[in-house]
Specification:
Length: 213
């Protein structure tokens, strides 16, 4: 969808040519707009579930579904409670998607150049490496925003006025290091998870192109 927006507004470029790196970064950022509307409620519920599991050591939440948490949040705060933190999610995902897709294309092209491989003949190894590095790069950029988003989404109603207020409280009480809590596990997970994602994308794209002839 992001690529379609970029091509629509760029009337002068040849639509048969691949997008430039700058255009891909813009397209990636724009793609976060519709996905945020879908993912924000699940992000909110997931964060609440994780906090609750930590509070009761998982005993009381082990048999509870996301739907039961959603009903509880809706009962307490209505639809506004379900969508709490949507702006914060977009604040994370817009730059995150820009970095994610932009860095993947950058790493992919550089790896192809170093190995003297035509990008159209992309090997699984290059796709896996570029995807893993893109995931790690993306999380290194957005992790502080994700920490603030999670704090905001799991806070009691009225505790914070917004993301800026969360930031001020966090820095005052825990210091700047708190912005990077969980960076180790995030990096360990980011490489294999995103390597697999982009390998799947490239394999599917190639199969689809072959199918269309």
């Amino acid at each position: 969808m992001g690529q379609q927006f970029v091509r629509y507004f760029d009337k002068e470029s040849d639509h048969n040519k691949p997008l430039t790196l700058t255009q891909l970064i813009i397209a990636g950022s724009l793609s976060s707009l519709p996905t945020t509307l879908i993912t924000a409620p699940s992000e909110r519920i997931k964060c609440v579930m994780q906090v609750q599991a930590n509070l009761d050591k998982g005993a009381a939440t082990a048999n509870r579904s996301m739907m039961s948490f959603a009903k509880e949040i809706y009962k307490e705060s209505g639809i506004r409670g379900i969508f709490k933190g949507t702006g914060a999610t977009l604040l994370r995902d817009a730059p995150g998607c820009a970095v994610y897709f932009g860095s993947y294309e950058f790493f992919k092209k550089e790896l192809c150049r170093l190995q003297s491989v035509d990008p159209s003949e992309l090997s699984p190894g290059i796709s896996l490496t570029a995807g893993g590095l893109a995931g790690m790069f993306m999380w290194s950029v957005v992790l502080p925003i994700d920490v603030l988003k999670s704090r905001f989404q799991t806070s009691p109603e009225g505790m914070y006025k917004g993301m800026g207020d969360v930031y001020r409280h966090l820095i005052r009480e825990e210091g700047y290091g708190a912005l990077f809590k969980g960076v180790g596990p995030a990096m360990i997970r980011a490489f294999p998870a995103n390597a697999a994602v982009f390998l799947g994308v490239e394999v599917t794209k190639k199969a689809w192109d072959n199918f269309l002839g």
